[in-house]
């Protein structure tokens, strides 16, 4: 007669075996052709690792949608409040694809001013940058898409002649 503990151990081993076999069959392992080789894959084998941020110069895997996600910036250096207007010109935003937040960040990536958006909001923000606290030449403007990650552009200060 088996003890209660040995029955429990047997059940646990059986459950572990079922989980292992299920995982192995779902992962695609063992799906070889008759000669033992792997069947050709219809998808490229390279995995895409998300970048920290995307730019006009380096849109990586999002090159096709870059123009719809890059922030357009108007900067009025004479003002101290509401001196940065940011628009994201995306034509294909919807309830499922939208800009979550628009903002400005310093050279370390810390947020200076942000505007969080709802799904139905137009991707426009009026932000403030104090030239006393931050060097405008070291500031980036960003937009964060729920599907296509973080997009940045440097705040380009018009040069005086």
Q: Can you tell me about this structure?
A:
- By secondary structure, the chain is α+β, with helices and mostly antiparallel strands.
- The protein has helices spanning 4-26, 66-69, and strands spanning 71-75, 84-88, 99-105, 111-116, 124-127, 140-145, 149-154.
- It has a four-stranded antiparallel sheet with strand order 4-3-6-7, with no helix packed on it. The chain has a three-stranded antiparallel sheet with strand order 1-2-5, with no helix packed on it.
- It is elongated and about 85 Å long.
Brief characterization of the structure:
This protein has two helices and seven strands.
Count of DSSP strands: 7
Average of pLDDT: 81
Instruction: Calculate Rg over CA atoms.
Output: 26 Å
| Total of helices | 2
Helix content: 10-25%
Backbone structural class: alpha+beta
Q: What series of H and E elements makes up the topology?
A: HHEEEEEEE
What is the first-to-last residue Cα distance? Answer: 96 Å
Tell me, what's the shape?
Answer: elongated
Strand portion:
15-25%
Work out the oligomeric state of the chains in this entry: single chain
Main β sheet profile:
4 strands, antiparallel
Low-pLDDT windows of residues: 27-47
Strand arrangement, major sheet: 4-3-6-7
Layout: helices, strands, pairs:
Layout: H1 4-26, H2 66-69, E1 71-75, E2 84-88, E3 99-105, E4 111-116, E5 124-127, E6 140-145, E7 149-154
Antiparallel strand pairs: 1-2, 2-5, 3-4, 3-6, 6-7
């Amino acid at each position: 007669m088996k003890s209660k503990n040995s029955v429990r151990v047997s059940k646990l081993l059986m459950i572990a075996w079922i989980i292992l076999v299920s995982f192995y069959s779902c992962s695609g392992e063992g799906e070889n052709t008759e000669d033992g080789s792997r069947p050709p894959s219809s998808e490229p084998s390279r995995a895409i690792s998300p970048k920290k941020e995307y730019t006009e110069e380096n849109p990586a895997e999002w090159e096709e949608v870059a123009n719809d996600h890059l922030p357009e910036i108007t900067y009025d250096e004479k003002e101290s409040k509401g001196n940065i207007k940011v628009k994201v010109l995306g034509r294909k935003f919807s309830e499922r694809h939208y800009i979550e937040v628009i903002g400005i960040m310093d050279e370390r990536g810390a947020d200076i001013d942000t505007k969080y958006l709802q799904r139905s909001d137009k991707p426009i923000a009026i932000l403030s940058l104090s030239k006393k606290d931050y060097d405008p030449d070291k500031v980036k403007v960003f937009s964060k898409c729920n599907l296509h990650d973080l997009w940045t552009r440097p705040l380009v200060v018009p040069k005086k002649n």
